[in-house]
Amino acid sequence: MRGGARFAAFAALLLACSTPPKRGFDADTGGSSSSSGGLGSSGGFDSDGGAPPGDGCTDAARLVYVVSAENDLYSFTPNTATFQRIGPLECPTNGLATPNSMAIDREGTAWVNFSDGSLFKVSTANASCSSTSFQPNQSGFLRFGMAFATNGEDSTDETLYVSGLGGGGGGGLGLGKIDLDTMTLTVLGDYTGNLAGQGAELTGTGDGHLYGFFTTQPFATLAEIDRSNGATSNDQALDGVQTGSAWAFSFWGGDFWFYTSEGTSPSRVTRLATSGSGDISVVKGDVGGFRIVGAGVSTCAPTAPPK
Questions:
Q1: Residues 136-146: what's their mean pLDDT?
Q2: Does the pLDDT value for residue 89 go beyond 70?
Q3: For 294, which of 58, 67, 70, 135 could close a Cys bridge (C-beta 3.0–4.6 Å)?
Q4: Residue 240 lies in a domain
Q5: pLDDT tens for residues 272-295?
Q6: Which residues, including other chains, have CB under 8 Å from residue 170's CB and lie 6 or more apart?
Q7: What range defines the domain where residue 277 resides?
Q8: Between 50 and 234, the higher pLDDT residue
């Protein structure tokens, strides 16, 4: 499916504000690529991907990671549209809790929110879990979308942002952030305009931008989010894209990548290109028999297309 010209203006704005001059990747993988599900030394990248040299990032930290409803962690290389299973999550949750959402920090560590509100750290090398002291349901944020974004265009400091998901109907509680030193959640504000009260998944970038994938009807909405107060702008309906029963998204290589599932069907991957005509198209109709409920990409990920 294609969105065509209606995305062009929005895409041009995103490209202008999100794509720095192209700079080469740091060649140092820090040993992570050999242990992260058998990734190769380059992880499918070449030397030009919009990340500064010497930024301390490994190739593994530049990938997208997804977690499935079946409790498995995968890496995803967008420019080759390939998934690689890393392993099952064996986090010590209470009862029948399942993965709800995920974010990836600059160290390449996954932070996974479960349906009971718990928050775990997960290795992207082998899917092993460790508990945190985070107390669920702070300010009503039990289940939430989540993403890291840097604190500015030229900063490597980052913040974990969360988007509170209410009960049924896709309702939301707005934007918050979690202090990872104290595990305290602070509410920043509700979304604005037509997106007030809506639920959202989040993705962030290494140049200080934060975006939401909103559960609007009949089609989902993409919007930029003000990191200080939750105000939304540049909202655009994603014609043909429905969040369905499981949804997540990421920003990688200058484009948006949406992972959606209808009912119990395997997830599909849809890409919104932010260059050229701003086309939206399905790049993978079936990810391989599983349903993606969370996606995470670190602020090390490229903000420009690798070549």
A1: 94
A2: yes
A3: 67
A4: yes
A5: 998 666 789 999 999 999 999 999
A6: 198, 199, 215, 216, 217, 243
A7: 4-297
A8: 234
